[in-house]
Amino acid sequence: KLILLDSLLQEIDTDRQCLLVDYRMRVEVMLVTRSIGVVVFLLCIPSQTLEMRECKFPPDWGGHFFKTGERDALHITRKYFGLEGLCYRQYSDNKFLLYRTEEMCYRCMEVWKRHENLLEYRMGPCYKNINPDVVPCYLGENPVNRTIVNLRGRNAPCPMFGTFSFTYKEGSKNCNSKKSSLTQCADRSTSILRFARCSESRGRESTGNMFYRTIISQERDPEETLTCKATWPREEDPSEFFMVGTLDHKYKRSDEQRVRCFLVKQTKRWVQIAQSQNSSCNSNLFSSMAGYKTMKLMRRTPVEPPSCVFPSWAVNMGTLYSFSYLSRYEFKGNGSVLSVSNFSISNKRTHVLSRTKCLEWVEEREGYAKIVTQTLAGCKQMYKCLRIFKRTENILEIQEGFVTTSRKAACFQAYLDEQRTTFTSLFRENSDKVSCPINGIHNVTEIFIKGSTTQCDGQGFTNLDIRCGDAEHLVQFYQECRSDDGLRLIEGPKSNYICLGGWQTLVPISEIPDPSFSGYSSNLKDPTIFAKDDEEVDTRNITYGFLVVAQELTPERRICLIYTKLKDSYSWTVDKTSCRRNIRPGVHGRLKFNTTVLETCAAPALNFAGFQIFFSAVLWLFR
Question: Under DSSP, is residue 40 helix (H, G, I), strand (E, B) or coil?
Fold first, then answer.
């Protein structure tokens, strides 16, 4: 064998720069491979493959991956590919030489990143007693492709979207009834599969064979939840897509039972899907037409232009965010669907929570609409009533009723109490500062800030200026207090806020919550707008308003100044989470104060420096 090997090596062109190794290594390699041709390939490598690099796996490969047949997850780090081995040498972006500590051998590995949640790889044989610095990457004949999936990663959109009926075939059983259905959930990565019993199954059940009925019920759960984790095009046929996902039902199963691989092909008329027998993509899965189980999906209803759309003044605002940036709202489908997602302002990631479809307008006037909607939250579909208000060019408010299974009852008072239902304030993306809707130089007459009623200490303020001077968008809290000797005015630091918008309305005084009946203590002197037992009810109207502002240096931190106005007297409550209703400003809340207007600031050029002798704010009060 050695003589034959030497003769083969001598015949190879020297330009290929074949490497000679000692006879002992050649013999051992030949004993392992049993093939002289393979030995020649192992020993003859181009010079460029000898370039040595620091061996590390890409950082985006890291994580815990499910692998078929393994109980524990495959943990990939920069140096280790789980138990497959230590990264010893890198040949290219996706070819590596691994060292397996247990067997003390070296093996080649080729890896492809198919999706952020999925890697596909194949391994070569493991060789001992070789020089790893010169051995080339050899994978052997017909290496098996293996897929590993990160089940902890973000879900992936499924390639099919919508509502379908389908027929399916499993083994020798054909289920041609179109009563089986696939329904998309709110998140495009999740669908509900409902399997109808096959006609042959119903016929056999009628024989009264209880054992057979028991076996059928254990074999097929009528409803499964499909969650897609990764998709990528098939190299042999780009019209088909691989999809790896989990199938869950009411009975808990192991990851080995949950994970399945699919081949999906979409045509103009239907979607063809084949499913693997187990969690591997190599188990009885040949094409979208041939697999352990095949399904033919037909779209139930053709896509038609929506007959009901949300108000254009709402749709035209584009992407909207909740008061505290915890949720994102988007109008989709030409304005027929309102999609709601949770939102992280730090990493900008979102996850769809619900999709609300416009069904029927109930009421309409300028800047207002009341609509019956169909809501898909998770995988549950219900009806609810939605009220939408246009407060400013950048601000919407909505009221959402309770969900119900009855479309006709959605807007009944039992499901939407307009007086008690919470308002949700929504802000246009990248909302800019605007001119404040109210103005004036205010003198603070009373204050209650986190238990303190003192205006001239670290937690107090004495003045509020709104839309004064050249800055029509500016709200300033500041403090001006006399020195200890009473001879000087000492001005504290000013806390600047910018106006994002505001609105107000006239309401009867009798409709404002009366603290004497609400169980709240005011902590402030009781204004005389409420009638006593021996007095007549005050029938006057009072201005009830909202002013949304944000810190000038950190505009993502919003607060709502809720106020009432009667003549020149204002009562205020500050809220950091929403523009609350059903409260009495100046009485309810942890941050509240009363003011009197000394001077208006209607003219931008007004010189009001002489009036700034009253009050300041401390920034940390609203943190």
Answer: helix
- DSSP type of residue 452: B
Element spanning 31, H or E: helix 23-33
| Residue in this structure with the two tokens 């390699």, named with its chain if needed | 29
| Gap between the Cα atoms of 240 and 35, Å rounded | 38
DSSP secondary structure letter of residue 161: -
Spell out the SS3 assignment of 331-348: EECCCCEEEEEEECCCCC
Q: What are phi and psi of 255, to 5 degrees?
A: -60, -35
Q: Strand 63-67: give its sheet, edge to edge.
A: 74-76, 63-67, 146-149, 118-123, 105-115, 95-100, 86-90
Taking a C-beta distance cutoff of 8 angstroms, is the pair 85, 111 a contact? Answer: no
Q: Calculate helix-pair angle for 36-43, 2-11, nearest 10 degrees.
A: 50
Q: Tell me: the pLDDT tens digits for 482-531?
A: 887 877 888 887 889 999 999 999 988 888 876 654 444 444 444 434 44
The tens digit of pLDDT for each residue in 475-489 reads 999 988 888 787 788
CA angle 488, 492, 495 (to 5 degrees): 150
Using only the alpha carbons of the chain, give its radius of gyration. Answer: 36
Spell out where 401-534 has E strands: 423-428, 440-449, 463-466, 474-482, 489-491, 495-508
What pairing do the DSSP bridges indicate for beta strands 118-123 and 146-149?
Answer: antiparallel
pTM of the model: 0.71
Residues 330, 414: Cα–Cα separation, whole Å? 28
145's tokens: 């492709």
- Structural contact between residues 387 and 399, judged by C-beta atoms closer than 8 angstroms: yes
Pairing between β-strand 495-508 and β-strand 489-491 as defined by DSSP bridges: unpaired
* 409 alpha-carbon distance from chain centroid: 31
Take residue 27 and report the two structure tokens written for it. Answer: 């013999």
E-strand stretches of 117-172: 118-123, 146-149, 163-170
CB 288 within 8 A of CB 274: yes
